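FORM 7B: Structural annotation worksheet

SECTION A. Query
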Amino acid sequence: MLSASVVICLAGSALIDAGRFSVRRATAVRVGAAAAVSSSFGPLGRFLPGGFAEASGPPGGATNSVVRTVDGIRQKRLGGTDIIVSELGLGTQRWGSADFNAPGESECHALMDRAILKSGVNLIDTAEQYPIPSDAARPEGETERIIGTWLAKDASRRKKVVIASKITGGRNINSRSIVSDLEGSLARLGTDYLDVYLLHWPARYTPQSNWGQSLEYKAETESYSKGRASFEEVADTMGRLVESGKIRGWGMCNDNAYGLAASAGAARALGKQPPCVMQNDYSVLNRRIEENGLSEASAPVHENAGFFAYNALAGGVLTGKYLDRPASVDDADRARARLSAQSPRGRMDEYGWGRTLYRYRSGPADDATRRYKAIADKYGISLAELSLRWCRERAGNISPRSLLPAPRPLPPYPPPTPP
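SECTION B. Predicted structure
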């Protein structure tokens, strides 16, 4: 079991339908959870009555503790902070993108209406680099702009949501860019603060920052880290943004246990707020954070950091839609593969994404997916529901980010042996 807490985000593809979870269109899925350490944040007025309101609670307390339940959705403490995050949230990578079936602005607004205004979801996860893919008509930053136009419809909406956004990683990360890119995000969102600000991937080289393609560390690649921002530079800049009230907490995406421990150590040495959240790919097919030390490092007794998981449905594989007909890049029947590419079911049928996300369709992954499908069928639920429920119940997740109905009890598995 994980030690922090989990949040699942389904980006633009799930709607609550008659009390059941249903996938309406093939889109990216993300999962996340977050935890933080106790600290004092920003101008005090924001944390007094009339400040952050629905998205806040009293400071202190155990990470992942349930503060309230809204429409069957638990809302949990983000570390030792007063940030309260729903266990389900919205991932937005493809909102307004150039993808073949991306949701447009009105559809994105409808998703936020349903999840936030009519249910208990309050977390929105985005990035300055979104949408992905982008083009000249739908440039990077468009997703934040879409969220901003929804917020602008009613001033009270900002207090109802926890917004997490990310700065583009690598050599873009330095003290100056962290500040200037944040100002760009705030302008597009139409707000004067972010709840959580993350590095989309770290400044330094790490095998984790290649989106899970390989976790082999190569010492010779360390040369790519030369001249990049140090842990101290990032921690000091983020800490000053917290103190100024521009952000409430910060963290890292596509990083690992070393990155968390070094960042937290640097922050403490500087007297600044340590990172409160990590974000990586995570699903029933991909449990690496439970094996590579990140869940241990994140534990309340250590760095007390939470976790945002993305690809909770393994790039769409855990919907089961590729079981009867292989993804186009895998299909030995080339005529059928061409048809799949012409009318894609999802990203696995696209050449670039299909090759990038092969790890979810390898032999062992395919075998596991079929076994999970059999379990889901046995208990009368979809493979997607089983997969998202699994993420939702892991101890390390603060809030599984997706639109799910209130959970209904599942029968025990395996079933008890008759006497």
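SECTION C. Observations
Residues 128 and 185 are 6 Å apart (CA to CA). Residues 1-5, 12-53, 399-416 have pLDDT under 50 and may be disordered.

SECTION D. Sign-off
Analyst initials: ____
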